[in-house]
Design a protein that fits this description.
Elements (H helix, E strand, L loop, with lengths): L1 H4 L2 H21 L6 H8 L1 H17 L3 H20 L13 E10 L7 H10 L6 E5 L6 H5 L7 E4 L8 E5 L3 E8 L6 E8 L5 E8 L6 H20 L5 E6 L7 H10 L26 E5 L3 E8 L10 E8 L15
Parallel strand pairs: 1-2, 7-8
Antiparallel strand pairs: 1-11, 2-4, 3-4, 5-6, 6-7, 8-9, 10-11
Helix pairs in contact: 2-3, 2-4, 2-5, 4-5, 8-9
Length: 336
């Protein structure tokens, strides 16, 4: 009955919408070569939700062929989304090793509510071992000094506007290096910390360039290639790569990063995303990541509260495996 009373122009618009949605989906598979495709694939979850609503509308108006075609697209999208949303985080039984908890956060250089961050870190410091912050420009040193008693080890990298990094740690820092990329002032950090049981963890940190333009995307990908090569060549067995990657797990470049570095990603539940914080949950995407090597296992990834930035913080609980423990958690390795 809905089809009978529908205006012909409405049916035309529905068909056009279905066509554009299918084209949008096809383009997303070209993210390895296209800047536009890189942007589209970042919103895979939102595209799926829009497609689901459009399928219901098409079937309501008895546009069966269009509805079935878009249903097929939705089915393929679900497989991709769920492949990154594995939730089995059962640790080796019995667990062998020590736990390490990392708090990572893009503070946002315009953030005027950094007191909330300091208060939250002070209140929850017992649950955190390392704090990794980016976009620290504008956050005064005396605010960070307020945390010195609970985080006695601190690294403040050079002021680089959006890309400045700060590391707070309860664990001793054995070394720290700032590695600049050749053609710019952008950099990544390499920090070695020592756990209570004497394990040496190599922590890499990065705030990647935002892919606003094709040239920015190319530069960002080149930076990832360089840091992935550094991580891969590092003979250490315990390696962590953390930061605001400005890239979602659905990008082909993310899978390339995992393969080139030899690191693993945690599960990414569909509605536990980090940016932008001011949008409702279904509108957010994940830009902030924590990757680990084989000798480490991700036990839990939690999204923290809104602390005034456009990003939400991420808390990652990691199991540092003992030498005799060879089993690791089922985390993503970028096979899709």
């Amino acid at each position: 009955m809905a089809h009978i009373f529908a205006h012909p122009r409405l049916l035309k618009y529905l068909k056009a919408g279905a066509t554009l949605s299918i084209l949008f989906w096809i383009v997303s598979y070209l993210s390895q070569w296209s800047w536009i495709a890189e942007i589209t694939v970042s919103f895979s979850l939102q595209h799926f939700l829009a497609n689901a609503l459009l399928v219901i509308t098409l079937l309501t108006f008895r546009l069966w062929k269009w509805g079935m075609a878009l249903t097929l697209v939705c089915a393929i999208q679900v497989v991709t989304l769920l492949s990154w949303a594995q939730t089995d985080t059962t640790p080796p039984s019995p667990p062998q090793g020590e736990t390490l908890r990392i708090f990572q956060y893009n503070v946002q250089y315009k953030n005027q509510e950094t007191d909330r961050l300091v208060d939250w870190l002070r209140k929850n410091h017992q649950d955190l071992d390392i704090v990794f912050l980016v976009e620290m420009r504008g956050m005064s040193c005396h605010k960070m000094e307020a945390l010195s008693q609970v985080y006695p080890h601190r690294i403040n990298d050079p002021e680089k506007k959006w890309f400045t990094q700060t590391i707070l740690s309860k664990l001793p820092i054995e070394k720290h290096a700032v590695n600049f990329f050749d053609e710019s002032s952008h950099y990544y950090s390499h920090t070695r910390v020592k756990t209570q049981k004497g394990k040496k963890i190599d922590l890499y940190g990065l705030h990647a360039i935002t892919p606003l333009f094709p040239s920015y995307t190319t530069k960002r990908n080149k930076h990832f290639q360089e840091i992935a090569r550094d991580i891969h060549n590092n003979v250490s067995k315990e390696k962590i790569f953390v930061g605001d990657f400005n890239m979602t797990p659905y990008s082909s470049h993310f899978s390339t990063l995992l393969k080139a570095s030899g690191l693993k990603a945690p599960p990414y539940p569909l509605f536990e995303n980090t940016w932008p914080s001011w949008l409702p949950v279904p509108g957010r995407i994940t830009l902030d990541h924590c990757l680990v090597s084989d000798r480490l296992s991700i036990l839990k990834r939690t999204i923290g509260p809104d602390l005034g930035s456009d990003h939400l913080p991420v808390i990652t609980e990691i199991l540092v495996l003992e030498e005799e423990a060879t089993e690791s958690l089922p985390v993503n390795s970028g096979m899709l």
